[in-house]
Amino acid sequence: MLEVYYRVNSARLMFEEMDGEVVVIHQDTGVYYNLESVAADIWRELQTGASLPDLAARLASRYVEAPETIREMVAPFLAQMLELGLVVETSAPPPA
Fold first, then answer.
1. Alpha carbon of 2 to those of 36, 65, 91, 92: distances in Å?
2. pTM of the model
């Protein structure tokens, strides 16, 4: 089974970081999203792409939680971002 990677849907979005927060505008819907704290950290990681296990490991190095716990907490957030068209799934790993 191929590993699934997630990345920002940069073809459909405009986004900018300001004061540690990320402001995202979906160009198709005109909806604005404001990502703070952990959500902003996840966004930064997804700009280059990551699998869920890789993302959880990277976040675990910054936060005091086990990667498995982080994975369980991040998975629903990724699913919501996919549903909103903010991220896309790909089978291509991010560049090294």
1. 31, 27, 7, 9
2. 0.91
